[in-house]
Amino acid sequence: MQKDPCREERNWKIVHKVDAKSISYDPVKRLNNHTDQSVTPWGGIPGVVLIMHYQKGSGVNTLADGFAVCEKLRRDDPEAFRLLSTYGNDAERDFSASRADSPQVLGKSLMVEKRERIITLDRHGDVARVQYNEVFRTALTLPFDVFPAWYAAYAKFTDMLHSPEFEVEAEMKAGSMMIIQNWRSLHGRAAARASPDRTVIGGTVTREAFYSRARELYRKHHGFDIVRATKY
Q1: How many of the other CB atoms lie within 10 Å of CB of 45?
Q2: How many CB atoms lie within 10 A of CB 38?
Q3: Helices in the chain by DSSP H: which ranges?
Q4: What does the pLDDT look like over 145-197, one tens digit per residue?
Q5: 78: Cβ contacts below 8 Å, ≥ 6 apart
């Protein structure tokens, strides 16, 4: 797993906390669908794999296929798709302050500002990555004449992510594990449907580490390397 510079453990840990400052630690509230590491602490791209394990209790997570949302948006509103894949979304995260409710010991603080497109395309024009988290969005630095149309596209994209057409629910309990393709699938949490002892442990894996290990195992068991089919 990736090592976060602000804590000793490689994994994060989320438990319920009364009067929590962060929505992540208050399961009474709805946590909207998002990708993890929309603001990365090392300035690179987000981890491609997200792992969540319910250590205790139960809850209901939500999921949405970001690629399906993007392709629907491309078909129905090409201009909205163009705007979200052209202009960056400003975001800021204080990695210590945003974890003030965490039971883990945090080290030095780290403040990161990023501006990333919500929809990243590959060289063929196909959707390669979705990078979205409303929690960390900050004042936008878009051109003045672009802002109204961009924000309308952003709002439309957000509504689609949480619509019955694209959002599904997954009931989780102690021992359950969820492995998510973090560049494609967005995850969230239903409101007020978690047990008081809900304890979730998780972390992320870089694309390079994931694909390297997969190719190594394939070569070991099949005697030859995987032909790279990815376009990213």
Answers
A1: 17
A2: 22
A3: 66-76, 78-84, 147-161, 207-222
A4: 999 999 999 999 999 999 999 999 999 999 999 999 999 999 999 999 999 99
A5: none
